[in-house]
C-alpha cells in the first residue's frame, strides 16, 4: 500500500504536467501569455513574456493613464505583498482542492489558475500582475526575488478516502431484501403466477442489479414493480437471427451474385463482336486448312496440257458415274420391276415406266461421255504426233471387256421385248381412256340429237322452236372413235432408240483408264519455254478473315503437273463475328507476286467441326489476260488446236483449291464455335432498336406465327416500352396480315404524337404562302405582310399561281391561234424556266465585290489631273456633264422611278391632203421620181382648197407617249418638221413590286411614242354664231409610232438619237411632202431615206445600275487552244477599244460556248422566195430580207430574265419562230451567202436596241447594211442608219475586229483585207483549224399552209372586232361592209409590194368608191407571233377613239403565209365619217 | 400546325487554340418539321480577332418552322473551322445544341470537340495542318457509334437565340 501511495503521489504531478503540456496554448493566451512547461520555469517564462509584452508598449509610444499613475505613485516595495498573496492563494487553493479533488484531477493546473483568477481575488491578481509589471520594468531584480521553490503537494490516500466518504455514497453490492422494495405492508405479487405473461427480462448481472436497487432505494424513487423487482421491459432482442449466417463466402454464393475480376480491357474498333464473348474472347477458333491447288487451266499450259486436263476431267466424270453406277442400278431396277409387273400387274407400272425413262437418259449420257473421252484422246495423240514430243504423262487405256455374243444378243432382244410389252400396255391404257371418253361424248351427242328431233317434230310454235335451237347452241361435233396404233411401228421406234443409246449386242464394253504412264520425250522439253517458266513460278495463298489478312502459306513451287500442295492449317482465334473468309491465291515469279484469284470460302455452320468436316474443292478462275510468245497458251487468249486456226477456243486461268474451314474442337471436345442463336450483325446498337425481336432477346424467331405464339406464352407486358415495337408487329400479324411490311419506317411513333395530319398541314394557306414566298416563286417573290391568322389569307391569292401551274400543262390554243405556235411557246417556256432556275441559283452566289464596296485608292495621276482641273478657267456657257448618282435596285419602291422622255423634234411628218379632192393623179408609175414630186406639189396646192376646214396648216402633229397605260402628250406643233423640245415624265412601277435587277430586266413593257395629227373641225352649226362662239371638235389621227422596249432603256441607261417612225405604208388622207425614194434600185439609198424621223432622248430617273451579265463560265466543246486564243483576242480588243463589242464565242441554246464562225454557213432560203422574182435579184434579196424580218423578234433578256445572249442555230430559230436580232442576222447572212453574195455579220451597236447584229453585203462596189429585224437596208453613208458603231465582222472563215479610229459606219472602211483597219482572228500564226458549222446542211421548210392562214385571218378579224367594240363601251360600233370588202381586196396587193408606193393608187381607188365619206385609216403590218401584240398595236393607234356619232369602221385582216409558218399579218383599220 | 420562330445569331467562339475561325452551321429537324422560310444552313465569315481570342461572327439565324409534332425538335449543329495564313481550312470542332424549347431569349454555349486521330495523324496535323474529320457529319447530332471516337475538347461557340412559339398550347404543349 505504501508503495502504491507513493506511486500515486509521484504520478499525480506528472499527470498534471502532462495535462499542462497537453493543453492548447491558444486558449491560455487570452489570460496568460504562454503555456508554462514546468512550475518553476513557468515563472521565469512568464516574466520574460511580460517583458516581451511590455517593451512594445513603451515603444509604441504613450503609456496609458493607469501606467502613468503607477509610475508616479509606485512605492517600489512589492515583494512581501506578493508573497503574502501567493501564500494566501495557496492556502485557499488547498481548501478548494479538498472538495473538488475528484473532478479536477484531469483538469490540470491551467484550470486551477483560471479558477483562481475567476474567483474573488481575480481583481487583486490582476493588480498584483500590474504591480509585478511595474516592478519588472523599473526595478532591476533577479528572478529569485519573485520565486519560491515548494515541494509537491500530496494528500494522503487515507485522508482522501476519508474525506471522500463524507461526500460520496457507494451503493452496496448486497441484495436488497424484497420487503424494502415493495411498499410497506404489502406482499410482493408475482404476475407470472397469476397466469399473466411476463416476458423475459434482459439479462443483467446480479451485482449490477443489486447496486442499482440499492441506489434507487437510496434515492427514494418509485422504480419497483409489484413483484419487488426493478421495472423493466421484456428483452427486445430476438432470439433467432433474421439473416442466415454467412460461412465460407466464396463457395456458396448464389451464382447470380458472383463477380469476376477482369483485367482492364483494350477496346477493339470492330463493329461486331460475338455475343456473350466477354470472357470467352478468343475461345472461338476457326481452322482453315489449305491443302492444295490444282490448275485446270494455267497460262503456261501448252496445248497438250489443255487436252490432258480435259481428258482427266472427262475421266473423272466417268469414274464418278461409275462410282455411283446409276445405269446399272436403274437397269436392275427395271428388270426387277418388270418381273414384278408380271406378277403384280399394273400397280407399279407407272413407277417402272419412269425408271425406264431415267435409265435411258443415263445410258445416253454414259455413251456420249465415252465418245467425247475418246475424241479428246484422239486429238491429244494427233497433237503429240504433230509436235513430236510429249510433255504430259496422261495416257488413256481402253480396256475391252469381252462379252458373250449370243447372250448379249439375247439380253438385248429381251430388253426390247420388255419395253415393247410395256409400251403396249401403256398404249392400251391410253386407248381405253380415249374410248371411254369417246363413248361419253357419243352419249351426249345422241341425247342432243334426240332433243333436236323432238323439238322439230313437236307441235309447238315455230318461234319457240327457233328460240330453243338458239339456246341449244351450235351442234356439237360428232365424236370420232380413236384409232389403235400399229404394233410394228412401235417396235421400230423402240429399236431405233435402242440403237442410239445402247451398246450394240456383241460389241465389247469399253472401260477407259487414264494413267500417267506416258513416256515424256525429253529432248525438246528443256528448250520448251513454259517449263523453265513453270520452274520459276511459285504459289502461295493468303487467308483473309473479315477482309483482313491473317496469315499466308509458304511459297510452294508450281509443279510440272500444275499441282501445288500446301497442306497447312491455320488456327484463327476470333473475336469478331465471321463475315467472310477469303483465300487469295498469289502467283509469284521471282520476287514479285500477283494476285491470281480470290476464293470465297463459305462460312461453316457451327456444327461443322474440325476432323469431321470434309475438305471442299473450291473452283476459282481469273479473268486476267496473259499472253506469251512461246508455247504457253496464255489466258483469255483465243487459240486453236487445228492447224488452220479454226475452231478457236478461249480459256481462262482456273483451278480448284481444296481447303476446309471448320470450327475447332477444344479440350473436352467442346466445339469452339460461337453460339448459333446470334444473327450476324444483330448486335449493332442502332440496328437493335429496329429489330424488334432481337431487342427482347428472342432472336432467331423469324416465323411470325411462332413469334405470336411465343409472345402469348411468355406473356409480354404490352405496356412495357421495350416491347412496343414487338406489340406493333404482333398486331399486324394478328390482324391477318402475316407478312411483315417491306418498308422501313423512319420514325415509328411519329403518327401517334402528331398534332395534325399531313393533309391539314398542306392545306394551310398561310404556310403555303410563306413557303412560296421563301422559294421566290415569281408571283410571291416580293409579297409583303403575310397575315398572321389563317383565315385572313384569302383563297384568291393562289389563283394566279395555280392557273399558271395548270396552264403549264395545258396548251392554250386560243391564245396562240395555231397549234404549232402553241407547242413552240410551250417549248420556249420550258427552256426559259430551266435557264431561269439556273440563274436563280447563280444569283445567290456572291463574289467579294458584290458584298464589299471598296473605293479605289486614287493614283497620283488621277490626283494630279484633278488638281489641274481646279486651276482650269470656269466656262459657265459650257456646262459640264455631271455624273448622275446611280441607285441600286434594292432600295427602291413604287413611284420612285420615273421615265424621262425628251422629245426634241421630228422630220418629214406626212401632211394632210384635202380629202374630197378630185383624183388628181391617176398615175400608175408612182415610183417615178418626177411624178411623185408632182403629186406632192399637187397635194400642197390642194391645201388651199375650199373644203379644208382650217386651212392654214399642213399638219399639226403632237407626240403622245404611252407607257404602262399611263399617257403623256406634248403640245401641238405646226408643220411637217416640228420641234417640241419637251420633257415628259412617266411613272414606272415594277411587276409585283420587285425592283431587283433580274425583275427589271424582264419587264416586257414597251414605250410607245405615237405621233398624232391634231385635227380640229368646226362644228358650229349656225353661221351667225361664228363670230362669237367657237365650237370645234378635235380629232387625232395616228401618223406613226416608235416602240422602244423598256429593257433596252434599262440596259442602255439612256437612249439618244433619231429614230425612224414606223408609219403605215398607206395613210389615208395624208401624203409625204417629199417622197424622194421610190425606186426599188440601189440608187435610192443615196438619197434621203423615206419615212419620218423623230429625235428622242429617253432615260430613267434615277439612274439604275443595270445587272451584270452572268459570270458563269460555260463549258464548251471547243478546242482548249481555240478558247484561249478567243479569250486573248477579246481581252486585247477590250483593252484597245473598250467600247467596241467583240464577239468570238457565244452561248448556244444548251448553254455551251461555241465559236461564232460556226454559225455562218450558206443556207438556201425557201424556194418560193427565189422563184417570186426570177428576173430581179434585187427584188428577191429584199423579199428574203422581208421574210427574215417577219420572224417575230423576242429579246433574250426578256425571255431569260438576265443578260445572257443565247444564240440558236437557224433551224432552231425557224422552229421556235422567235429570236433575237442575232438570230435574224445570222439567218439573213446565211441566206445571202447562199444567194451568192458577199456577206458578213456585223457585231455593233445600234439605236435603239444597243448591242446587236446586222448584216453587211457588198454589192456593185458598195456596201449595204441590212437591218435584219426590219428587213430594211441602208447605204454605208446613210445618215439615218440605225447602226451606230461597228465592232467586228464575222463570216464563216474568220472574225475581224475593227481597229480603226472611228467605228461609225460612215467614217470607216469595210475592206477586211487591209490589216491596218481590221485585225483578223485567224491569221498566219494561228490558222483556222477548219471549224465545222453548227448549222444544218440545209434548212427544211414546211409548206405554205394557206388554209391555216385563212383560218387564222378569220379569227384575228373576229377577235379584233370584238376588241374594238369592247373599247368603245359608250358608243355603238357600226361596221361598213362595203369599205371592209374593198380594204380586204386591197391588202394582198400591199403584201406583194411589201407595203410600198401603192398609197396613191389605192387611195384614189378607195375614194372614188366612197366619195361621201371622210376616211382616215391605215394598214398595219406585223409579223405574227401571238394575238396579244396585234391587239396592242391596234389599240395604240387609237382609231377607235373617234367619237363622232355617225362614225363607221372598216376592218380587214389579211394573213400572208410564207414557208415554215412565217406569217405576215396585215390589219387595215379605217374610220369613216359621213360628210353629208 | 404549331409554328416556331428561331431568331438569333451565332455570336462567336472562344477558347480555341488559334483564332481566325469561321463556322459552318446547320439546323437538323425531324420529318415532322417544315421549313417555311429562312436558310437552314450557312457559313459565317472568317473572323480574325485583334484584341482578344474571341472570334465574333454575329451571324444571323432566322428560321420559321411549321411542325406537326414535337419529334425531331430542331437542333443546331456547328462546325468550327480554322483558316490558317496560307488560306487552308482545317476543322477545329464539331458541336451541336438543341434549340431551346421555351420561348424567350436564350444565350447558349455550345461546346465543341474534334476527333483525335492516331499519333501519326496528330504529328502530321502539328506540322502540315489538316486533321481527321468525320466521314459523315451526321454523327455530330445522331450520337450513334460515337463511343468509338476519340476526341479532344475544343472551344465553345456562343449563340443567342430568341424563340417564339405559336399554337403549341393548342396542342397541349405547355411552354
From TrEMBL, chain A:
One of its GO terms (biological process) is non-motile cilium assembly. Residues 910-1059 form the C2 domain. Residues 19-29, 85-97, 470-486 have a biased composition (Basic and acidic residues). Gene3D superfamilies: C2 domain. InterPro entries: C2_dom, C2_domain_sf, CC2D2AN-C2, CEP76_C, CEPT76/DRC7_peptidase-like_dom, DUF5523, Tectonic-like_complex_comp. GO terms for cellular component: ciliary transition zone. Residues 1-29, 83-135, 457-489 are annotated as: Disordered. It comes from the Eukaryota. Transmembrane segments: none annotated. Pfam families: C2 (PF00168), CC2D2AN-C2 (PF15625), CEP76_C (PF24652), CEPT76_peptidase (PF24656), DUF5523 (PF17661). Residues 98-135, 459-469 have a biased composition (Acidic residues). SMART domains: C2. PANTHER family: CENTROSOMAL PROTEIN-RELATED, COILED-COIL AND C2 DOMAIN-CONTAINING PROTEIN 2A. This is Coiled-coil and C2 domain containing 2A. It comes from Scleropages formosus.
TrEMBL record, chain B:
GO terms for cellular component: MKS complex. The keyword Cytoplasm applies. Its main location: cytoplasm. GO terms for biological process: cilium assembly; establishment of planar polarity; establishment or maintenance of cell polarity; opsin transport. Keywords: Cell projection, Cilium biogenesis/degradation, Cytoplasm, Cytoskeleton. It holds the Pfam family B9-C2. It is found in: Cytoplasm, Cytoskeleton, Cilium basal body. Component of the tectonic-like complex, a complex localized at the transition zone of primary cilia and acting as a barrier that prevents diffusion of transmembrane proteins between the cilia and plasma membranes. Belongs to the B9D family. This is B9 domain-containing protein 2. It comes from Scleropages formosus. The gene is B9D2.
Amino acid at each position: 500500500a505504501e508503495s502504491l501511495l507513493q506511486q500515486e503521489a509521484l504520478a499525480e504531478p506528472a499527470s498534471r504536467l502532462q495535462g499542462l503540456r497537453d493543453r492548447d496554448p491558444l486558449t491560455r493566451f487570452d489570460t496568460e501569455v504562454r503555456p508554462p512547461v514546468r512550475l518553476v520555469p513557468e515563472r521565469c517564462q512568464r516574466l520574460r513574456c511580460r517583458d516581451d509584452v511590455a517593451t512594445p508598449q513603451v515603444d509604441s509610444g504613450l503609456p496609458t493613464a493607469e501606467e502613468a499613475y503607477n509610475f508616479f505613485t509606485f512605492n517600489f516595495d512589492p515583494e512581501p505583498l506578493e508573497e503574502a498573496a501567493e501564500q494566501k492563494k495557496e492556502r485557499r487553493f488547498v481548501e478548494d482542492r479538498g472538495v473538488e479533488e475528484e473532478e479536477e484531477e484531469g483538469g490540470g493546473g491551467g484550470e486551477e489558475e483560471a479558477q483562481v483568477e475567476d474567483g474573488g481575488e481575480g481583481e487583486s491578481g490582476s493588480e498584483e500582475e500590474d504591480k509585478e509589471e511595474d516592478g519588472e520594468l523599473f526595478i532591476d531584480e533577479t528572478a529569485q526575488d519573485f520565486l519560491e521553490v515548494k515541494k509537491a503537494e500530496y494528500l494522503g490516500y487515507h485522508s482522501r478516502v476519508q474525506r471522500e466518504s463524507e461526500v460520496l455514497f457507494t451503493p452496496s453490492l448486497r441484495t436488497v431484501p424484497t420487503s424494502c422494495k415493495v411498499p410497506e405492508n404489502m406482499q410482493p405479487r408475482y404476475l407470472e403466477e397469476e397466469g399473466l405473461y411476463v416476458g423475459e427480462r434482459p439479462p443483467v448481472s446480479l451485482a449490477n442489479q443489486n447496486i442499482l436497487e440499492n441506489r434507487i432505494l437510496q434515492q427514494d424513487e418509485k422504480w419497483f414493480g409489484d413483484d419487488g423487482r426493478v421495472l423493466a421491459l421484456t428483452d427486445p432482442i430476438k432470439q433467432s437471427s433474421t439473416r442466415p449466417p454467412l460461412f465460407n463466402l466464396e463457395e456458396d454464393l448464389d451464382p447470380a451474385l458472383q463477380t469476376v475480376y477482369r483485367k482492364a480491357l483494350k477496346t477493339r474498333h470492330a463493329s461486331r463482336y460475338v455475343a456473350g464473348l466477354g470472357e470467352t474472347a478468343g475461345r472461338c477458333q476457326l481452322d482453315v486448312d489449305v491443302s492444295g491447288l490444282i490448275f485446270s487451266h494455267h497460262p503456261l499450259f501448252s496445248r497438250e496440257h489443255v487436252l490432258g486436263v480435259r481428258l482427266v476431267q472427262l475421266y473423272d466424270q466417268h469414274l464418278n458415274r461409275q462410282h455411283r453406277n446409276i445405269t446399272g442400278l436403274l437397269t436392275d431396277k427395271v428388270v426387277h420391276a418388270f418381273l414384278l409387273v408380271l406378277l403384280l400387274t399394273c400397280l407399279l407400272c407407272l413407277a417402272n415406266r419412269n425408271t425406264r425413262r431415267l435409265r435411258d437418259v443415263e445410258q445416253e449420257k454414259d455413251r456420249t461421255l465415252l465418245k467425247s473421252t475418246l475424241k479428246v484422246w484422239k486429238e491429244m495423240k494427233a497433237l503429240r504426233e504433230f509436235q513430236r514430243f510429249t510433255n504430259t504423262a496422261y495416257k488413256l487405256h481402253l480396256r475391252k471387256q469381252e462379252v458373250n455374243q449370243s447372250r448379249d444378243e439375247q439380253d438385248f432382244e429381251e430388253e426390247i421385248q420388255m419395253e415393247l410389252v410395256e409400251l403396249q400396255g401403256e398404249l392400251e391404257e391410253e386407248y381405253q381412256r380415249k374410248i371411254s371418253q369417246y363413248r361419253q361424248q357419243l352419249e351426249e351427242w345422241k341425247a342432243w340429237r334426240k332433243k333436236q328431233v323432238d323439238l322439230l317434230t313437236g307441235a309447238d310454235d315455230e318461234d319457240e322452236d327457233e328460240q330453243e335451237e338458239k339456246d341449244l347452241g351450235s351442234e356439237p361435233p360428232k365424236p370420232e372413235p380413236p384409232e389403235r396404233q400399229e404394233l410394228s411401228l412401235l417396235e421400230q421406234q423402240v429399236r431405233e432408240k435402242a440403237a442410239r443409246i445402247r451398246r450394240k449386242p456383241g460389241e465389247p464394253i469399253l472401260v477407259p483408264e487414264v494413267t500417267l504412264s506416258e513416256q515424256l520425250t525429253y529432248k525438246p522439253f528443256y528448250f520448251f519455254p513454259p517449263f523453265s517458266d513453270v520452274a520459276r513460278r511459285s504459289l502461295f495463298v493468303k487467308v483473309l478473315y473479315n477482309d483482313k489478312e491473317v496469315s499466308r502459306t509458304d511459297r510452294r513451287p508450281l509443279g510440272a503437273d500444275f499441282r501445288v500442295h500446301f497442306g497447312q492449317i491455320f488456327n484463327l482465334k476470333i473475336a469478331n463475328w465471321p463475315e467472310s473468309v477469303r483465300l487469295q491465291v498469289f502467283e509469284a515469279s521471282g520476287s514479285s507476286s500477283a494476285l491470281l484469284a480470290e476464293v470465297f470460302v463459305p462460312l461453316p455452320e457451327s456444327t461443322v467441326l474440325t476432323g469431321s468436316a470434309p475438305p471442299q474443292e473450291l473452283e476459282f478462275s481469273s479473268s486476267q489476260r496473259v499472253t506469251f510468245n512461246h508455247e504457253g497458251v496464255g489466258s483469255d487468249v483465243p487459240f486453236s488446236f487445228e492447224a488452220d486456226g479454226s475452231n478457236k477456243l478461249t480459256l481462262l486461268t482456273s483451278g480448284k483449291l481444296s481447303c476446309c474451314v471448320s470450327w475447332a474442337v477444344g479440350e473436352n471436345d467442346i466445339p469452339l464455335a460461337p453460339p448459333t442463336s446470334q444473327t450476324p450483325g444483330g448486335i449493332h446498337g442502332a440496328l437493335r432498336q429496329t429489330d424488334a425481336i432481337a431487342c427482347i432477346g428472342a432472336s432467331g424467331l423469324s416465323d411470325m406465327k411462332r413469334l405470336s405464339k411465343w409472345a402469348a406464352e411468355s406473356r409480354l407486358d404490352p405496356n412495357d416500352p421495350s416491347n412496343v415495337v414487338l406489340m406493333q408487329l404482333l398486331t399486324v400479324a394478328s390482324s391477318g396480315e402475316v407478312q411483315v411490311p417491306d418498308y422501313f419506317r423512319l420514325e415509328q411513333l411519329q403518327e401517334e404524337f402528331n398534332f395534325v395530319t399531313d393533309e391539314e398541314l398542306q392545306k394551310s394557306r398561310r404556310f403555303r404562302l410563306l413557303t412560296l414566298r421563301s422559294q421566290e416563286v415569281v408571283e410571291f417573290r416580293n409579297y409583303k405582310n403575310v397575315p398572321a391568322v389563317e383565315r385572313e389569307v384569302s383563297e384568291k391569292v393562289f389563283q394566279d399561281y395555280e392557273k399558271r401551274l395548270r396552264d403549264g400543262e395545258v396548251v392554250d390554243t386560243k391564245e396562240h391561234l395555231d397549234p404549232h405556235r402553241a407547242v413552240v411557246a410551250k417549248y420556249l417556256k420550258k427552256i426559259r424556266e430551266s435557264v431561269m432556275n439556273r440563274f436563280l441559283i447563280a444569283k445567290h452566289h456572291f463574289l467579294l465585290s458584290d458584298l464589299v464596296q471598296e473605293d479605289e485608292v486614287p493614283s497620283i495621276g488621277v490626283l494630279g489631273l484633278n488638281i489641274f482641273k481646279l486651276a482650269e478657267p470656269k466656262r459657265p456657257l459650257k456646262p459640264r456633264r455631271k455624273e448622275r448618282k446611280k441607285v441600286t435596285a434594292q432600295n427602291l419602291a413604287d413611284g420612285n422611278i420615273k421615265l424621262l422622255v425628251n422629245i426634241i423634234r421630228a422630220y418629214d411628218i406626212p401632211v394632210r391632203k384635202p380629202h374630197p379632192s378630185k383624183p388628181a393623179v391617176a398615175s400608175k408609175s408612182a415610183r417615178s421620181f418626177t411624178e411623185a414630186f408632182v403629186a406632192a406639189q399637187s397635194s400642197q396646192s390642194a391645201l388651199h382648197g375650199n373644203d379644208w376646214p382650217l386651212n392654214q396648216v399642213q399638219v399639226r402633229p403632237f407626240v403622245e407617249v404611252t407607257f404602262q397605260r399611263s399617257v403623256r402628250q406634248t403640245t401641238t406643233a405646226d408643220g411637217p418638221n416640228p420641234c417640241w423640245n419637251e420633257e415628259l415624265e412617266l411613272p414606272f412601277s415594277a411587276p409585283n413590286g420587285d425592283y431587283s435587277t433580274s425583275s427589271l430586266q424582264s419587264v416586257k413593257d414597251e414605250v410607245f411614242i405615237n405621233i398624232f395629227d391634231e385635227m380640229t373641225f368646226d362644228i358650229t352649226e349656225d353661221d351667225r354664231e361664228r363670230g362669237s362662239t367657237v365650237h370645234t371638235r378635235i380629232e387625232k389621227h395616228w401618223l406613226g409610232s416608235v416602240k422602244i422596249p423598256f429593257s433596252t432603256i434599262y440596259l442602255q441607261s439612256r437612249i439618244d438619237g433619231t429614230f425612224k417612225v414606223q408609219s403605215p405604208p398607206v395613210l389615208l388622207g395624208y401624203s409625204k411632202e417629199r417622197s424622194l425614194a421610190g425606186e426599188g434600185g440601189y440608187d435610192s439609198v443615196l438619197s434621203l431615206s423615206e419615212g419620218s424621223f423623230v429625235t428622242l432622248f429617253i432615260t430613267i430617273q434615277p439612274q439604275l445600275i443595270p445587272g451584270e451579265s452572268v459570270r458563269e463560265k460555260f463549258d464548251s466543246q471547243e478546242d482548249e487552244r481555240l478558247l484561249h486564243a478567243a479569250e486573248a483576242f477579246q481581252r486585247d480588243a477590250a483593252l484597245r477599244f473598250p467600247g467596241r463589242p467583240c464577239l468570238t464565242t457565244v452561248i448556244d441554246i444548251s448553254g455551251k460556248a461555241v465559236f461564232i464562225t460556226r454559225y455562218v454557213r450558206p443556207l438556201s432560203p425557201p424556194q418560193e422566195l427565189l422563184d417570186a422574182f426570177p428576173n430581179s435579184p434585187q427584188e428577191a434579196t429584199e423579199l428574203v430580207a422581208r421574210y427574215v424580218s417577219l420572224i417575230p423578234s423576242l429579246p433574250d433578256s426578256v425571255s431569260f430574265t438576265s443578260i445572257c445572249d443565247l444564240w440558236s442555230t437557224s433551224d432552231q430559230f425557224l422552229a421556235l419562230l422567235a429570236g433575237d436580232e442575232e438570230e435574224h442576222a445570222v439567218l439573213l447572212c446565211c441566206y445571202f451567202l447562199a444567194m451568192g453574195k458577199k456577206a458578213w455579220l456585223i457585231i455593233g451597236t445600234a439605236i435603239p436596241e444597243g448591242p446587236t447584229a446586222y448584216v453587211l453585203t457588198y454589192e456593185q462596189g458598195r456596201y449595204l447594211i441590212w437591218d435584219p429585224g426590219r428587213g430594211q437596208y441602208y447605204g454605208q453613208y446613210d445618215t439615218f442608219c440605225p447602226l451606230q458603231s461597228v465592232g467586228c465582222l464575222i463570216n464563216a472563215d474568220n472574225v475581224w475586229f475593227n481597229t480603226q479610229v472611228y467605228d461609225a459606219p460612215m467614217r470607216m472602211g469595210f475592206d477586211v483585207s487591209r490589216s491596218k483597219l481590221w485585225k483578223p482572228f485567224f491569221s498566219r500564226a494561228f490558222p483556222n483549224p477548219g471549224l465545222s458549222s453548227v448549222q444544218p446542211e440545209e434548212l427544211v421548210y414546211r409548206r405554205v399552209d394557206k388554209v391555216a392562214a385563212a383560218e387564222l385571218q378569220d379569227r384575228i378579224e373576229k377577235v379584233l372586232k370584238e376588241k374594238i367594240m369592247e373599247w368603245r363601251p359608250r358608243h355603238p360600233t357600226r361596221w361598213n361592209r362595203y369599205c371592209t370588202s374593198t380594204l380586204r381586196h386591197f391588202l394582198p396587193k400591199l403584201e406583194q409590194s411589201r407595203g410600198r408606193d401603192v398609197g396613191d393608187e389605192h387611195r384614189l381607188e378607195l375614194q372614188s368608191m366612197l366619195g361621201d365619206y371622210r376616211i382616215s385609216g391605215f394598214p398595219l403590218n406585223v409579223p405574227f407571233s401571238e394575238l396579244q401584240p396585234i391587239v396592242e398595236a391596234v389599240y395604240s393607234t387609237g382609231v377607235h377613239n373617234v367619237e363622232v356619232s355617225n362614225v363607221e369602221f372598216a376592218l380587214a385582216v389579211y394573213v400572208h403565209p410564207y414557208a415554215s409558218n412565217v406569217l405576215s399579218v396585215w390589219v387595215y383599220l379605217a374610220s369613216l365619217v359621213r360628210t353629208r | 400546325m404549331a409554328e416556331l420562330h428561331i431568331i438569333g445569331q451565332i455570336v462567336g467562339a472562344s477558347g480555341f487554340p488559334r483564332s481566325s475561325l469561321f463556322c459552318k452551321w446547320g439546323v437538323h429537324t425531324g420529318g415532322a418539321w417544315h421549313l417555311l422560310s429562312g436558310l437552314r444552313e450557312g457559313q459565317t465569315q472568317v473572323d480574325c480577332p485583334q484584341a482578344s481570342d474571341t472570334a465574333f461572327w454575329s451571324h444571323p439565324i432566322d428560321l420559321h418552322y411549321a411542325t406537326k409534332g414535337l419529334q425531331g425538335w430542331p437542333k443546331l449543329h456547328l462546325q468550327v473551322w480554322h483558316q490558317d495564313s496560307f488560306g487552308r481550312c482545317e476543322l477545329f470542332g464539331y458541336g451541336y445544341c438543341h434549340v431551346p424549347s421555351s420561348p424567350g431569349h436564350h444565350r447558349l454555349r455550345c461546346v465543341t470537340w474534334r476527333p483525335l486521330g492516331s499519333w501519326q495523324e496528330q504529328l502530321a496535323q502539328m506540322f502540315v495542318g489538316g486533321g481527321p474529320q468525320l466521314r459523315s457529319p451526321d454523327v455530330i447530332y445522331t450520337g450513334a457509334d460515337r463511343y468509338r471516337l476519340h476526341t479532344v475538347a475544343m472551344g465553345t461557340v456562343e449563340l443567342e437565340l430568341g424563340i417564339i412559339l405559336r399554337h403549341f398550347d393548342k396542342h397541349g404543349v405547355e411552354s
